[in-house]
Design a protein that fits this description.
alpha/beta; seven-stranded parallel sheet; about 10% strand; globular
Amino acid sequence: MGNQKHTDAGQISKLQRERQRMPSVDVLVEGIIKGDSSTLGRAITLVESNRKDHLEKANAIVQKCLSQKRDAIRIGITGVPGVGKSTFIEALGAQLNAQGNRVAVLAVDPTSTQSKGSILGDKTRMDELVKNPKAFIRPSPSGETLGGVARKTRETIILCEAAGYNIVLIETVGVGQSETAVHGMVDFFLLLKLSGAGDELQGIKRGIVEMADALVVNKADGDNIKKAAAAAGAFKRALHLYPPKENGWIPKVLTCSATENSGIDAIWEMIQGYIEQNKKSGYFLEKRKRQNRNWLYESIEERLKSEFFQNGNIAPEIEKFVTEVMAETISPFQAAAELIGMFKNKS
């Protein structure tokens, strides 16, 4: 009997500790609105979690923050590894902070398909910006799917805006489809390039360059200034090969040195000019509306996919069909049709 009481007391104590570790939705929202960075971090952790109870809590937090958020300027920044994205963001963020802005940096790190881990090192590479009370830096794993990037980052943007950050910088990994996802959730998409690294020829190709609203050649300093200017000229000529953008904007090509903090002010002036032009024309609001519509469709797809694979009745059956598909005793299309039929009947 005594052991039973001891066990019950231990379970109650464990439950109390769990509640203390996980504040209520209202407490978290209140802390976010007050601009408390630690509370914001805890809420983002819920958003990034795959646990069902965390997902429900995260959805409630995002819903409440929607009515509190201020529309920040959302800027996507990408480029190949080594182009100096973190250094550039730190230089830009410091300048924006000095002008009185509150800046949130969301750095999407690649998730390993083998270890399922991420490095999440951007916070250590922005050691000065992370000390600024008007800045918030959050490195986040990209997850194993493109939809994961879209869902988690979009919801995190809403939380950051509710917390009073009026500029959100989203740094992508620069090595995959996450660029496409981030491009679909920002107001301005900036591509950082290098000179003398074969980037000039790559820049002529379609794809990510076509998505960019501006190309910036970084590391234009020292002996590299002339090379950077030549690369910028090559990019300008290449951009004439692309069709005009829907909003009539002609992508700009600039040079900068993030380490020497030169050219950063001109880049920010260009971004401001772009935003002002799009707000006057109505394109800014129309683009936001389309992004929200796409967010709905992507959320539906992600939710259906998650419920399908996590369904206790379906999970064991999938392996059976996988074996048959690999043995070519059934086509993938027929296997998919049967699995979906089973899912509909058992849900």
